[in-house]
Amino acid sequence: MNRFLLIAGLAVVLLGGGLFYLSPAQQGEQPVKPEDPERVEKAAFNGFDLSLSAPGETCRLHFENGQVSGDVDLSLPPPCRFMRDAEGRPQFYSENGRQLIAVVGGVPAEDPIDPLTMRPDCGIGLAGIEFSDGTFTATDYTMGPGVFCALMGLEQREIWLLLNG
User: Fold this and answer.
1) Residue 88 covered by a domain
2) Which among 117, 135, 136 is positioned nearest to 127, based on CA atoms?
3) Which of 9, 41, 88, 98 could form a disulfide with 52 if both were Cys (CB 3.0 to 4.6 A apart)?
4) The pTM is what?
5) 3-state secondary structure string, the chain?
6) Is 75 inside a domain boundary?
7) For residue 11, what pLDDT is reported?
8) Residue 65 domain boundaries
């Protein structure tokens, strides 16, 4: 009897956690249609104005602060989205003095079995831009193909892989 209750309780916890994990409303944003590939996202970071767009076939980060400006090309298809926190603000990560800007790109093929493929904040790839010593550079490691969602944040292992992979 105790084993049954333990298994039933575990199933309820896992199911409840899964529903919480998949719900876009819990992240403070309601589902919308995927962004237009021509859409530009903007953010501020360490005194720089950032813009994320796709002027060609891939995502590009433009940065400027009045003295320095430049572009970082990413190997992600549009639309391009900054990874965001629970309030919808662009989220930046730090590890051992290195800072990371994560970008989600592309649109996953809809799969009725996988609800993440129908979320507008999800894409098929994840790339990183490292900010170190006043310079922005694309990280060597890109994740995908898969399903990555801008409103779900990153796990520590994903941050490590983007910075060190």
Assistant:
1) yes
2) 136
3) 41
4) 0.76
5) CHHHHHHHHHHHHHHHHHHHHHCHHHHCCCCCCCCCCCCCEEEEECCEEEEEECCCCCCEEEEECCCCEEEEECCCCCCEEECECCCCCECEEEECCEEEEEEEECCCCCECCEHHHHCCCEECEEEEEEEECCEEEECCCCECCCCEECCCCCCHHHHHHHHHC
6) yes
7) 41
8) 32-164
Q: Decide: 73 and 67 in contact? Cβ < 8 Å.
A: no
Are residues 160 and 135 in contact, defined by beta-carbon separation less than 8 angstroms?
no
State the DSSP code for 79. S
Which two tokens mark 145? 């193909």
Is there a domain that residue 47 lies in? yes
d(CA 80, CA 124): 11
17-41 residue pLDDT tens: 333 333 333 334 333 344 455 679 9
Contact (CB, 8 A) for 103 and 91:
no
With 0-12 / 13-18 / 19 or more C-beta atoms within 10 angstroms meaning exposed / middle / buried, residue 163 is buried
Structural domain count, the chain: 1
CA 64 to each of CA 3, 27, 82, 124, 151: distance values in angstroms, whole numbers, following the listed order? 60, 29, 17, 28, 25
Token output for 153:
């944040």
In a domain, 6, yes or no: no
Cβ–Cβ < 8 Å for 28, 86: yes
